[in-house]
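User: For my dataset I need records formatted as: sequence, then structure tokens, nothing else. Please produce one.
Assistant:
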Amino acid sequence: MAKVPKTTEERLKKESKKYQKILQAAATRDINESDTVLIIRDMLSELFGYDKYTDITAEYAIRGTYCDLVVIVDGKKHFVIEIKAIGLALKEGHMRQAINYATNEGLEWAVLTNGAIWQIYKITFQKPIDYELVFTLDFLNIDPKDMRALEMLYLLSKEGITKSAIEEYHIQNQAMNRFAIAVLLLNDAVISSIRRELKRIHKDVKIDPERISEIIQTDIIKRDIVEHERFLAETKKFKKNAQKSEKCKTNGVQTVCVEQKIELTENAQNENVKPSAPVIPEK
């Protein structure tokens, strides 16, 4: 997680405590969507550090309809914010509305919030267009003294946006998500390592690698993980990367994967053999 600058940290601590009280009072009064938008706009300015007059555009027109807010820093649009009344539970239809706004505007990030709950989505422009929930923030229940909570707020702050903190967080989160780790736990190399350690401790016991895999899958990893579509996606990604690594092994030529040059071995150089074309893994 990116380090939060001290001045930003102090602002986030002070203003999050202030806006927790404001939003709690708003929830008690059950204010409407328009009033919730006003609070969110003030939060973007006082809590997240954006200039209310230059960085935030309200009622932004997108293909004949209007998004509540768009954050624009130094002339670049960063994300749309779709806002609902604080007393309204966020639903799938609201999420799709936010995603559609961002997609139609060519933006990779969309925020859906009712003030209390903040959902941050990443859009991937491929065929078909894909999206994922990167994180959810329960603003009313965060501890302003908790550094982890402040780091999450920092991702949406002006300082964080200008340093691409949210992109870095997303990349790290993709690499270390629970589905990817579950796939690695069931990998043959990991199971072999576990078997080797068990044999070292229990020399006279027959250790079956298939039994190790079964125990990991049924007793250690949660069932909802191995049955989730993300687990299948991570399995395919792991196998694809493994295949790419295999393709990088060539005879007589040292191949450095992906976008690095091929270096000839001494034998090839002595025989004036031209290097073969670099091996570029299939995408």
